[in-house]
Design a protein that fits this description.
Layout: H1 4-16, E1 26-28, E2 31-34, E3 37-38, E4 53-55, H2 63-67, E5 76-78, E6 81-83, H3 86-92, H4 98-104, H5 109-114, E7 128-131, E8 134-137, H6 141-154, H7 158-166, E9 170-172, H8 187-202
Parallel strand pairs: 4-9
Antiparallel strand pairs: 1-2, 2-3, 5-6, 7-8
Helix pairs in contact: 1-6, 3-4, 7-8
């Protein structure tokens, strides 16, 4: 496997030339559709997998939807820290205190998604997140680069790397927040990142 720094450089070059068109969600007779396929089944449950796309969600119906989620427990190393999931990073950076942040990195699955309520700091008021005590502006290129490095580190886990590599359908994340102001990783950013990663891995 390649050196992380080398692979990150190759990925960012690939991403800079990558064309991504986000799939539109249509509402027909009160029901949501994407590429003509319904997003909910007859019982009102979210559909994770269909022939045209994968709608990522840890609790959605379909195995691909679950294993492509940031909540799935893929353990990997990032800047010397062991993270139990990608989501543990996105929740950890909401904590200013380094010890608390490191503690959050040990959580995965739904626990990491809910643990944010334990923080007494609201990043939305300032737009500032923290990596090991260092301020990172949510709306900066520095933040985007940090996230790119996160995902390149994550794909060093062979299972996560392989699921992205063998995925052929468009990856959606309908539950994701719409704007950078309301979430540390928006629907658009998630879909761009995973679709770009899977195509990058296929071109290697």
């Amino acid at each position: 496997m390649k050196d992380i720094k080398e692979e990150l450089k190759e990925f960012q070059k690939f991403k800079s030339n990558y064309t991504f068109i986000q799939q539109e969600i249509e509402e027909i007779n009160g029901k949501q559709f994407c590429e003509g396929e319904p997003l909910l089944d007859e019982d009102g449950n979210e559909i994770g997998d269909c022939e045209k796309w994968i709608n990522v969600g840890y609790k959605y119906k379909g195995p691909y939807a679950k294993v492509l989620s940031n909540l799935f427990p893929y353990e990997f190393k990032f800047r010397g820290k062991t993270l139990k999931s990608i989501e543990s990073f996105f929740q950890g950076i909401k904590f200013k205190d380094i010890d608390m942040q490191n503690f959050v990195f040990n959580y995965s699955v739904l626990d990491s998604n809910h643990i944010k309520v334990c923080s007494d700091y609201d990043w939305k008021e300032t737009g500032i997140l923290y990596w090991q005590g260092i301020k990172v502006n949510r709306f900066s290129k520095e933040y985007d680069n940090l996230v790119d490095e996160l995902y390149i580190s994550a794909i060093q886990n062979p299972l996560y790397r392989n699921i992205l590599k063998i995925t052929t359908r468009d990856i959606l994340h309908i539950m994701g927040g719409a704007t950078k102001e309301e979430t540390v990783f928006s629907r658009y950013e998630f879909e761009l990142q995973l679709n770009c990663l899977k195509d990058f891995l296929k071109n290697m």
